[in-house]
Amino acid sequence: MSEKILMKGNEAIGEAAVVAGCRHYFGYPITPQSELIEYMAKRLPQVDGVFLQAESEVAAINMVYGAASAGCRVMTSSSSPGISLKQEGISYIAGSQLPCVIVNVQRGGPGLGSIQPGQADYFQATKGGGHGDYRNIVLAPNSVQEMADITIEAFDLADKWRNAVMILGDGALGQMMEPVEFKESSSKPVEKSWAATGRRGRAKPNIVNSLYLQPDLMEKHNHVLQEKYAKIQAEETRWEALNTEDAEVIVVAYGITSRIAMTAINKARANGVKVGLFRPISLWPFPSQPLAELAKTAKAFVVFEMSAGQMVEDVRLAVNGAKPVSFHGRTGGMLPTPKELYEKIISVANGEGGK
Amino acid sequence: MSEKILMKGNEAIGEAAVVAGCRHYFGYPITPQSELIEYMAKRLPQVDGVFLQAESEVAAINMVYGAASAGCRVMTSSSSPGISLKQEGISYIAGSQLPCVIVNVQRGGPGLGSIQPGQADYFQATKGGGHGDYRNIVLAPNSVQEMADITIEAFDLADKWRNAVMILGDGALGQMMEPVEFKESSSKPVEKSWAATGRRGRAKPNIVNSLYLQPDLMEKHNHVLQEKYAKIQAEETRWEALNTEDAEVIVVAYGITSRIAMTAINKARANGVKVGLFRPISLWPFPSQPLAELAKTAKAFVVFEMSAGQMVEDVRLAVNGAKPVSFHGRTGGMLPTPKELYEKIISVANGEGGK
Amino acid sequence: MPKPVFNEERCKGCELCTIVCPKKIIVMANHFNSKGYRPSSCSDESQCIGCALCAKTCPDVAIEIWK
Amino acid sequence: MPKPVFNEERCKGCELCTIVCPKKIIVMANHFNSKGYRPSSCSDESQCIGCALCAKTCPDVAIEIWK
Amino acid sequence: MAERTFGRPEALLDVPTHYCPGCHHGIIHRLVAEVIDELKVIDRTIGVASVGCSALAYDYFNVDMVQAPHGRAPAVATGVKRVHPDGVVFTYQGDGDIAAIGTAEIVHAAARGERITTIFVNNAIYGMTGGQMAPTSLVNQVTTTSPYGRKQDSAGMPIRLSEMLATLDGAKYLARVAVNNPANMAKAKAAIKKAFEIQIAGLGFSMVEVLSTCPTNWGMSAIESGTWMEKNMMPYYPLGTFRSGEEVAK
Amino acid sequence: MAERTFGRPEALLDVPTHYCPGCHHGIIHRLVAEVIDELKVIDRTIGVASVGCSALAYDYFNVDMVQAPHGRAPAVATGVKRVHPDGVVFTYQGDGDIAAIGTAEIVHAAARGERITTIFVNNAIYGMTGGQMAPTSLVNQVTTTSPYGRKQDSAGMPIRLSEMLATLDGAKYLARVAVNNPANMAKAKAAIKKAFEIQIAGLGFSMVEVLSTCPTNWGMSAIESGTWMEKNMMPYYPLGTFRSGEEVAK
Amino acid sequence: MNQEMIFAGFGGQGVMLMGQILAYAGMMEGQQVSWFPAYGPEMRGGTANCSVIIGDEAVGTPIVTEPQVVVAMNLPSLDKFEPHLAAGGILLINSSLIERPAKRSDVKALLVPCNDIAKELGNPKVANMVMVGAIVAASGVVKIESVLQVLAKKIFKNKPEVMQLNEQAIRRGMACIS
Amino acid sequence: MNQEMIFAGFGGQGVMLMGQILAYAGMMEGQQVSWFPAYGPEMRGGTANCSVIIGDEAVGTPIVTEPQVVVAMNLPSLDKFEPHLAAGGILLINSSLIERPAKRSDVKALLVPCNDIAKELGNPKVANMVMVGAIVAASGVVKIESVLQVLAKKIFKNKPEVMQLNEQAIRRGMACIS
Ligand SMILES: Cc1ncc(C[n+]2csc(CCOP(=O)(O)OP(=O)(O)O)c2C)c(N)n1
Ligand SMILES: Cc1ncc(C[n+]2csc(CCOP(=O)(O)OP(=O)(O)O)c2C)c(N)n1
Ligand code: SF4
Ligand code: SF4
Ligand code: SF4
Ligand code: SF4
Ligand code: SF4
Ligand code: SF4
Ligand SMILES: [Mg+2]
Ligand SMILES: [Mg+2]
Prior knowledge:
The complex is a heterooctamer, with two copies of chain A, two copies of chain C, two copies of chain E and two copies of chain G.
Chain A: E1 4-8, H1 9-19, E2 24-27, H2 34-43, E3 50-53, H3 57-69, E4 74-78, H4 80-85, H5 87-95, E5 100-108, E6 114-117, H6 122-128, E7 137-139, H7 144-161, E8 164-170, H8 171-175, E9 177-181, E10 207-208, H9 215-235, E11 239-242, E12 249-252, H10 255-270, E13 275-280, E14 282-284, H11 288-297, E15 300-305, H12 311-319, E16 325-329, H13 338-349
Parallel strand pairs in A: 2-3, 2-4, 4-5, 5-8, 7-8, 12-13, 12-15, 15-16
Antiparallel strand pairs in A: 1-9, 5-6, 7-14, 11-13
Helix pairs in contact in A: 1-2, 1-7, 3-5, 10-13, 11-12
Chain E: E1 4-6, H1 25-38, E2 45-49, E3 64-67, H2 73-83, E4 88-94, H3 95-101, H4 103-112, E5 117-122, H5 152-155, H6 161-165, E6 171-178, H7 182-200, E7 205-211, H8 215-218, H9 222-236, E8 240-244, H10 246-249
Chain G: E1 2-9, H1 15-28, E2 32-37, E3 48-55, E4 69-72, H2 75-81, E5 90-94, E6 108-112, H3 114-120, H4 127-139, H5 144-155, H6 160-176
Parallel strand pairs in G: 1-4, 4-5, 5-6
Antiparallel strand pairs in G: 1-3, 2-3
Bound molecules: thiamine diphosphate (2 copies), iron/sulfur cluster (6 copies) and magnesium ion (2 copies).
């Protein structure tokens, strides 16, 4: 199992889910995530799992809702428009505190958009595209290996917190092949005493529900959720900082963009610019604290996204006016080139292009 | 027509839409907005309009998509879970630049939640609950009269900018009755040369579309959208500031919460506290500029919401660290009492409860 | 001897039981229960044949039949 | 005299027209068009009866019939 | 000694319901509970409540329950059943829930032959939200969203869901019943039992459509509602069996 | 002098399509365009493209077009038609679009008797996304999401949408045709014309299901695809008329 | 100053309308008014109630939590809202259906046999109008003329007989408050 | 240093597999590798292509915009990618299907008659393997042994005859590069 194999990011997520003990997958095809649903169609029957192609993304997320209610490890995946359709279901999953893993292999939007890679669903994923106060844990890998590792972690986090975990990838990560290794994993499904399994001798029925007609009870329920979210923020924030110790310019980027940024950063370093990379891995909880720390030493921040500017708001909130934060984005399925990022870094290092 | 009548907020929106020349409504029942769909069911046939109860919120938003494509003034309405279901359609509407009015009479969430008033769909409305980089104009009335006035304005803005306008109300505003007056209005449907009406002698077909398979074209399209959004930000930001000139504490609140806040502010003023109200009326574009101005004179900000803290992020972004911003929220359908808001104001005035 | 036993607090006064009783012995009481409904009651238990039609009709399972 | 006129650049070489021609006079050319497809062509126009079956079958409207 | 000859089934919790006086939802609950008792499956039954007046059904049934989003109960039940193939999984849905917003989910659960049982309570109206038109509302029926009566020209004819699903191979048992009198109640219960049995035998999807009343939103007494149903609903929604489960045997 | 006896209809723009070699989408496009020409409604026709290989249909038809979200074309068309009741509105949808994600929308457009015409291209697969199983994929058909063949036990039998919609009163004309040979093409065109006529006469909803090929994802040549369709699809999806429009006359 | 009131009772007792009439009357007098219903499933089975605010100040929250006037048309409503009444407030009890006396001693409790009077007047439906009269008399929040005007112009327009009966009921209700 | 390459051709020509084989071989040599396909409707009708990066540095963007190697299996691919080739880069042209010569003079253009050789070998399907051999010979990005190992262990496992034919094709392709 621990040999390196060349795999697409989409497939790596699929295999990692199987390693994590996920035996239930419900999904609907959409480019550029289809290799994932196809992988599950092939793989799950081999391990006596359940693969079901739903009639729609709405049905898929509700099958996930049902399967998670019933106590198993379960996953669904889609891409941008399909994830929009899942928003009601995701809000219900939050309300009922159901553990599950949701993969968004983002493409260019809005609307039918393009099927090329995008990062413009950041707001939807992190702030809540559905209604009500809730949070998904959102993890953003930047390599095929990390897609595998993070998927396994996602199942553990989901069960640990009774919360949805969203893996926010994009078309580039989903489609590209890189070497990946599946190490032995201790991750495995856990007992869920709250699940709707049939009473099976239990005295009281288990109920999975998000309805509280009495607003005071609903508020109490919201407090439970908010306390959980606060704990998740305290315990589960993840990020990577490269060359930031002495950096005057901090590049903030996640996912595929962070890799393109790294190429640009290396070139800038080679040319004597003190620049480092801060890469949020958990987009929610967002690593605000470490960024605020960096704001004490760095002179400026620049955020790179494949969007018109979304994560940059969280960076600004973290930096809170202490230092200038500038932004450079590409949209619609265009990947930035290392060259343009390099140029932006240089201009920021020269004190241009402030806010 | 210009006599005062006692009306529910939901009904006032309906009548105002008729005044604005809206003759097409597509919706699906949900508490606490049902009076609006019911009003349209009764009213539109009287003016030879089209009322259609869709089979779902998904169908409703797509009927709106079709009707807007066809060139008319059109409205839909729902409440939180129903709005979540509309997210894909809303993203398409943004992508195709279609003018329409979408009403969200918010309730407590997440999930099925409660049907009592809420303000926890702020993120969804303002940051984009759908996929991709897009913005709806989001207007938040705080009285039945304003619900009527803003509705008329919403249709004008929608046509002016070829953009969706969301009216963000809540169960309290929707259900309450207050006096309302419908003045003569000059608002009326406009010619739309881009609409799919049938060619009717036109040489070239009109196409309504959000698909751009070539990422460079998709990016170009996104630039068009972003430029439009920048203009809307420059021209259409709306807010109300009451007693803010000399205020040391600025309360920021919108919708029904702003009224409860006003009661609390009056009491605090009576007790010698220099406090004022800043009420965003357009939640997007958010009135960041005037807030930033106030940050120069005020000592502290406090944000009141019926949520676990959503608009507060935009306030923090606007204030950008210049002054402390604190928050007090109620969730799940609970309305804050003037008393608790008063106490929070006092504690902020006393320099407590910082960040 | 069969007889219907009414859970007055559960009764919502819908009167459905009154029309199915073959003996027509179910009538609405003159008082209110704590929810404000007039509960049903049996006017003459001795006539009851224990057919349970009343009980089976009650949407609130407010009637039991005992013998 | 009827005859089929081929728009070679539109042809995708699917060969569907070849099987419907009652005269079996449509064959695939030996060269490629600029998209890389081998377009269809008529081996003997004189035999064409102008039935237009080839044209009606072509998914790419790459054939017109003239007389 | 006194003996109880009729009382509350074990599968129905001894709590007051929120249903309006005379609403048939309560009767239908009891019948489902009696069937669960008789089949001795209380320990492995998992119910899926929908959105509608029966949203709170999870408070009433003495079995594990999941509350599903509006219209999605069949998808939720599919998720549950695929995790617990030995479970007895039922959905309980109103006509708005199943025949409007949930059309795709019920059609596909039926088409897949999903081994679940659906109790479909057709009261020709949206009860929970205050009496709006349902896809099942009758022509000319006045509701809050058809204040001038449902117009066929604009809203079409009411959907007969059972008949529609009968075209799908995976739907192994489909029946329409009513609980407006004791005789019909007995037939209703038999149908519900058969539907559960079809599921337990692993044959495929089963559904019982129960014609029901909504005194509150119909604006009548409970007794009048029964009469209205007989006179107006039954002619358009004939009681009967649309797929009998017999087709399955062969 | 030379005269063109057969060529491109006016309603079809003279541009290359993105369809794969031999894909029937192109033929079906042409037939629809010919009908628009013959009915002389090019000036008031509004087409609604769906999501599937025909998403770009708006680039090909010489009429106003709206591109609809996946599955929602009937709802979008409803919106269009209710604004332009004198318009001739058609949707063009694949089997995944119409029979999976768009089930609710097509059922309700049909139930309402919406005065639109749907061209439903059934190729038993998701073409656009690379060959996944559709609700219409045949039992044992190997697709990328049914790599071991579609299993009836888990995925159910393929949905026959036309037969299902035939249970709805608002569906006034429903026919299944094919374009795999000239004779069938002629019938297909007649059906499409009839469907448009039913709409123009204001009688209600009309739909033509066209059996189609997907050489690319079926993994065969265009010619083999025709044969495969005849041998495998036609027995399960019989050609014919399920509602003839005659019921309407009475 | 604003008067904050809660009207509560059973679904069919017309408490929502009572509140609307008062709010309308206030509006016609040029006062600031608001009316807010308890809505949704709350209504079903339990008590129906609405909040009404009338006075000269802009209305903040339309939901009344500490009413100065509570109108209880049935027992569950009395049980539910009596505790929230402001000290010194007015408690109007429909004594036809409510047998128990007020528990609070720091409020002004007034008994109005609404259903009995309505029965006397020959139409049980006007019980709520009896109470409307009593509220006006007890609270003085609006003038009786305004109430009658609302009824005549808005509610019973073109139905003079009905109007007359309702006016009678209102006057009987007023008479209960001495 | 990383080598950045683009492989392009018609849908059926196996260009995706060519890229994967090279990437796999690189991986087996312990190099950093990535493979990225042009995906979706792009593939249909037009050219299919993939980007491959092999080298000793961590891979940033997997999408190659300025390739050092371009492999054109048909004319549209040559038209599309020749202009993007880095100066001094290698341009491999399937001369069986492409008649025109290279337009660029600042690159090293190499002609490989893939289809002709494949035909000679008796199986037109191995045209892509001919090109694989040529790429390895021309670029040296991976060792030929690695390629053969990938084929033997991953692609044609348990099919020694097929393996043999493919190895032949590869060696013929290598021989084209002098
Ligand atoms: C997504 C969504 N849309 C709408 C609603 C509002 N809603 C709640 S119940 C209901 C209709 C219920 O009617 P039905 O299914 O017939 O059940 P009944 O109450 O009549 O038993 C609606 C529209 C909702 N909760 N969620
Ligand atoms: C909401 C959403 N889900 C999924 C997709 C991806 N998608 C695009 S086309 C398609 C299926 C198309 O199949 P079909 O309707 O049969 O048309 P065909 O391509 O076969 O003509 C899917 C699933 C999408 N674009 N949007
Ligand atoms: S058991 Fe039968 S006879 Fe006895 S009260 Fe009930 S219905 Fe009447
Ligand atoms: S049927 Fe039940 S609830 Fe109705 S009146 Fe009789 S006992 Fe009471
Ligand atoms: S017109 Fe008829 S005979 Fe002539 S080439 Fe075409 S198919 Fe053959
Ligand atoms: S049918 Fe058309 S595309 Fe196909 S080979 Fe013939 S001419 Fe070419
Ligand atoms: S509203 Fe209608 S369906 Fe709902 S509980 Fe009341 S009577 Fe029953
Ligand atoms: S993928 Fe299939 S359906 Fe789509 S264009 Fe190609 S052959 Fe036609
Ligand atoms: Mg109903
Ligand atoms: Mg298809």
